[in-house]
Amino acid sequence: MSSLFKQRESAAVGEGHAWLEVQAALKMNTEGLIPAIAQQYDTKEVLMMAWMNSESLSETVATGRVCYWSRSRSKLWRKGESSGQEQHLKEMRFDCDGDTILLFVDQTGPACHTGRRDCFYNVLQGDEVVVDREPIIDPKDLYK
Amino acid sequence: MSSLFKQRESAAVGEGHAWLEVQAALKMNTEGLIPAIAQQYDTKEVLMMAWMNSESLSETVATGRVCYWSRSRSKLWRKGESSGQEQHLKEMRFDCDGDTILLFVDQTGPACHTGRRDCFYNVLQGDEVVVDREPIIDPKDLYK
Q1: ipTM score of complex
Q2: Which residues pair with B70 in a beta bridge?
Q3: CB-based contact (8 Å) between A13 and chain B?
Q4: Whole-angstrom Cα distance, residue B74 to residue A97?
Q5: A4, A13, A109, B48 — which has fewest CB within 10 A?
Q6: What is the DSSP letter of B43?
Q7: Tens-place pLDDT, residues B45-71
Q8: B138 at A interface, C-beta within 8 A
Q9: Whole-angstrom distance, CA of residue B13 vs CA of residue A122
Q10: What does pTM read for this prediction?
């Protein structure tokens, strides 16, 4: 565990470290990525989980518009750039050991590429996994 | 993307697949792990993010008590086994591409090893990252 995050475990409320110092202490994986959970700030729905690299994290903080790293396309992914469904950053949090980010966001429309509000529509019920949400926008209308 | 999850993207509400088939289609990383987000089922606080392997996932489903894979200790981690602060499973969800799990849990006391209710107590404020929560139990009393 990074000593900066270790040190912060017993820090008093209000104690701060400079953002650039914290950013440098984040624990990226071997691909240079860190998981980021996006939670709708007012309803508290967990919308999705995606990955950031250092560049997408810096851009998100600088612009207030959430930018991930697309592992499938190997490029920066400004959420909403093709679907129009943007995520605006309300608050950014880091966990105790600095290896996960929690984003409070304001999500326009669906967060999921299937047109559903969130990505977690597969729910375990007994010995089956069932779809329990419908798209709020037809995915054909999201990506034209 | 797994064809099972791809197929489910356009499934109607109520459409199911057998749990064992879904479990086999989950996308584990190169270490055989999948991220699991724990959210308190009633307040919707995001408590923590940790990792599961196939065995911990099966055990969690079978027992209803959340079991992760501890990457630092390389063993099954039955949440609360040393701290007494258990997580009981209320609902389990899988995202659109089958590479993230969302757990609705009922967490006894603090989820975080620092004694805080959740792990995300480091918040970005301007150009500083500030601690904004106190432990609800002294960590010295959690691990005796």
Answers
A1: 0.96
A2: B75
A3: yes
A4: 17
A5: A13
A6: T
A7: 999 999 999 999 999 999 999 999 999
A8: no
A9: 10
A10: 0.96
